[in-house]
Amino acid sequence: MATVVLGVCGSIAAYKAADVVSGLVKRGHEVHCVCTPTALRFVTPLTLMTLSRHPVLSSFDDETQDWVPAHISLAQKADLLAIAPASAHTMACMARGLAPNVLTSLYLANHAPVLVFPAMNTHMWEHPATQENVQILAARGCSIHGPAEEGRLACGACGKGRLLPVAEILEAICARLP
What pairs with residue 151 in β-bridges? Predict the structure, then answer.
């Protein structure tokens, strides 16, 4: 089957990444997780490693196993890069070509299709800077999925910003796989 790199950003929705990984593995795909440092405040590397059956990459310090940096080798190996949840910060870094962590560095080295699944506070999502970053990413070929139209967010606000349901994320990812 396909090799999927799943990027996980800092968001309360990061716990859903475990279900995404599990669903992809059950469908026979090879999954590698790359987490931002903030994502690890919401989900543990052990959880994602156990479900994916591969070590989790979360720091440049993790890149000591091979002479080719892991963020480069994973970018070359990927059939698809999916980022779920995608934070406003990571999307801004991607749009501006910044690479402060292994996920954004992998994104810059990646040539596979990119699917972005945003999750953030309604006001953050609606901010003109975020909307401009979404337009830049879409113009570069990234496929933006979500956020969900309406609902109560973890912060208590109601509105657009929640991560799409896991079933929809899996459907979007599998539809783009070779």
Answer: none
